[in-house]
Amino acid sequence: MKQITPIYILSGFLGSGKTTLLQKLIDFWQEQDLLPAVIMNEIGDVNLDVLLVKEQVPMTEMLSGCICCTSRGDLSSEIANLIHKDSPDVIVVEATGVANPLEILDGVTEAALYLKIDLKGLITVVDSEHLLQLYREQGGKTYRLMQEQIRCASVLLLNKIDRVRAEEVDTLNTIVASWNSYAPVIPSVKCDVDILSMLGNMRAELPVAGSSLSQSEHLHASHDHVMVYTHYFNEAVDSEAFEELIANLPREVYRAKGILTFSDTNSRFLFQYAFREPDFLKINPQGDVPDVAVFIGEHFSRSSLADALRALENSKT
Ligand SMILES: Nc1nc2c(ncn2[C@@H]2O[C@H](COP(=O)(O)OP(=O)(O)OP(=O)(O)O)[C@@H](O)[C@H]2O)c(=O)[nH]1
């Protein structure tokens, strides 16, 4: 009979590397014969990250929105269900990239009122290049949300430092320390960090004062601007034409992912696009997984994107 279930919250803007870190956390716990469970939520109505998490890990998905938009009660009942059904040794709540971490903290804290759980802390993953750019531009809702995610962290991963220069890493360290002097900051590439010391160095208490939670209603509006377009493919498309479309995506689209069948290759691909960097991974999904791509951004034209994608399907010979 398990006593108290530790819970970690994983936060970070879209595409910063949360799922990459989640995979490493799962490996770490499984190597110790522990059973981790995951609560994942995605903005939009498909969750492709599920494919990246091992099948033996119990997982709950909360789709079509984000944890902080659904009621907090939903999150706490998901936690309760997982504990009763699977008795995991540890739970990770991976927040959608546009979630406000204060709301999620609030949900987990509510669950702690009637469940034997121990909120260990909040890990925020930062896309170094993206943060640097927003810092230089100084403003915008995405920038404020990223600041919020950094402020709430009990440990911070300054990820994707391969995408910035060494002196820029120093600048970023100074920036994040000025927003959160409390959390240890760990620079990383592909979230390749020493998990044991990361979890060990995590500050025991969260830096969120009780009063901050009362601001949550005000903060809730912070991701109203984010929109999603989900495209289901009827036909396989040419890989080069697709890559070209991705390379020319409007700047307003800052995240995309999908599963694709290309007309010119035999295998299927999981494609990722985060802050202007595309990535393709050969996969062999089990079961009936459709060809689909999800695009997330701010005020981009869904119809132009839909037309461009349909044109790719139609140009296939
Ligand atoms: N260049 C570079 N790419 C990285 C790094 N870490 C992760 N990536 C890539 O960035 C993309 C997004 O990573 P994810 O781990 O899926 O990001 P996420 O935060 O879970 O994304 P959402 O689920 O959309 O919020 C993937 O293609 C990763 O392989 C890094 O340190 N450097």
Quick overview of this protein structure:
The protein folds into two domains: 5-223, 3-Layer(aba) Sandwich (Rossmann fold); 226-314, CobW-like, C-terminal domain (Hypothetical Protein Yjia, Chain: A,domain 2). It contains eleven helices and twelve strands.
Question: Layout of helices and strands, plus pairs?
Answer:
Layout: E1 5-12, H1 18-31, E2 36-41, E3 59-62, H2 72-86, E4 90-94, H3 101-111, E5 117-127, H4 128-137, H5 141-151, E6 155-159, H6 166-179, E7 185-187, H7 195-200, H8 210-213, H9 216-220, E8 226-232, H10 239-247, E9 253-261, E10 268-274, E11 277-283, E12 292-298, H11 302-314
Parallel strand pairs: 1-4, 1-5, 2-3, 2-4, 5-6, 6-7
Antiparallel strand pairs: 8-12, 9-10, 9-12, 10-11
Bound molecules: guanosine-5'-triphosphate.
Description:
This protein has helices at residues 18-31, 72-86, 101-111, 128-137, 141-151, 166-179, 195-200, 210-213, 216-220, 239-247, 302-314, and strands at residues 5-12, 36-41, 59-62, 90-94, 117-127, 155-159, 185-187, 226-232, 253-261, 268-274, 277-283, 292-298. The chain is of the alpha/beta class. The protein has two domains: 5-223, P-loop containing nucleotide triphosphate hydrolases (Rossmann fold, 3-Layer(aba) Sandwich); 226-314, CobW-like, C-terminal domain (Hypothetical Protein Yjia, Chain: A,domain 2). The chain is globular. Bound molecules: guanosine-5'-triphosphate. The site of guanosine-5'-triphosphate has 22 residues, from α1, β10 and β11.
